[in-house]
Amino acid sequence: MTARNREALALLPSALLVTAGFTAIFLKRDEFLSDASLAYGAAFLALCLIGHLVIRFTAPNADPFLFPIVALLACFGLVELYRIDVSFAQAQAQWFVVGLGLFAVTMIVLRDYHQLERYRYTIAVASLLLLLLPRLPVIGQATNGAYLSIKIGPLAFQAAEFAKLGIVIFLASYLRDTRQVLIHGGRKVLGVMLPPLKHFGPLLAIWGTAMVMLIFIRDLGSSLMFFGAFLALIYVATGKLRYPLGGIAAFAAGAYVVGGQVSHVQDRVASWRQPFDPVLFGSSSIEPRPPEFGTSYQLAQSLFAQADGGLFGRGFGQAELATAVSDNGTVTTSLLPAAQTDMIYALITNETGLLGAAAILLAYLLFIHRGFRVAILARDPFSKLLATGLTAVFALQVFVIVGGVTKVIPLTGVTMPFISYGGSSILANFVLLALLMRVSEEARRPTR
What we know:
Blueprint: H1 3-10, H2 12-30, H3 36-58, H4 66-84, H5 86-109, H6 120-132, E1 140-143, E2 146-152, E3 155-158, H7 159-184, E4 187-189, E5 192-194, H8 197-217, H9 220-238, H10 242-259, H11 263-273, H12 278-281, H13 297-309, E6 322-326, E7 330-334, H14 344-377, H15 381-405, H16 423-444
Antiparallel strand pairs: 1-2, 2-3, 4-5, 6-7
Helix pairs in contact: 2-3, 2-4, 3-4, 3-5, 4-5, 4-14, 5-16, 6-7, 7-9, 7-15, 7-16, 8-9, 8-10, 9-10, 9-15, 13-14, 14-15, 14-16, 15-16
């Protein structure tokens, strides 16, 4: 069986999951079966087949598993979002179609991705500007204390989602040219070989950008994601362990010093360390209420929801997202705030149990494995570094959000790729997928 035929066959489980998921939700809400679930499954399969045809004609040798894995993650997100609110699923479906279109355009137009190397500094400057735009007045928006979004009229998007791609492209191109200097050049200081400042300066600027993000954007998750991808790239480029170890030490020191001056970061760390503290949790018995009152409620409820899911879960549509108390009217209290974005992993765990959550993580691990395999197979340094950087930033994004929801690290506002609600994440990750497919096509193309 050819690679493309395997890809087409692998899309069927996603369509079946959409049909089964919507059937379960309809039974929960209306107590009868509806043929709408079959229509949704068929429509989703048709869209995925369009994407498959684009790959078949533009990249026939590309990896056959990346796109089906994305389809599986996306269908899971659509079902869960429909279960939360129909309007979320409708908007996400629209963004999925737009993202699929952007994926197709990237695959068709960007036949030679090496052209991106010519514009690396332009791409880097544009990416840094995107990171700083959310702090500008009028267009910048704060979400839970972090400046992540840009709003221009009715359109709002998260700039960091697109900036991550530009930063990776710049680093891959820059390290391709300077990796030999970073390995052999420079002078020894205290027994450690340091590269020339003129070559290492731009890399130090990336570290400075991560610290700036902590101060001005107040986004711990994005700064960790960007800097982690930077360390992965520099290690792959040089093969020297001293660079990532030194980078981790520098980031930890910078985060400790800078984080101690930013109240938003302090609140996140305090909530992470003691999520069940009565004051941080927001106990109604606390009077007067300090500024940090209720800051850990979201994380604590996430942990409760995951524990409540058990091994097999409560079933699609069975999780309790809000409680209504009749007292001179109906008062609704959210039991799982931001279930469609930050907390969607907790909702998945509650409804599908540990087994369902493990299945989602396994799908992400398979995507990451295939991405790094593309990097291994790539035939030139830029392609290897590009595939490594794209896969690393994707892996770190998954780690940051899942780690935050499960209390491994402080909770941040990073989205869960292809599952969480949000158009910016869908569009940016479809471009990421297209770039990986392009590198894979060149790497797997038979040599003559």
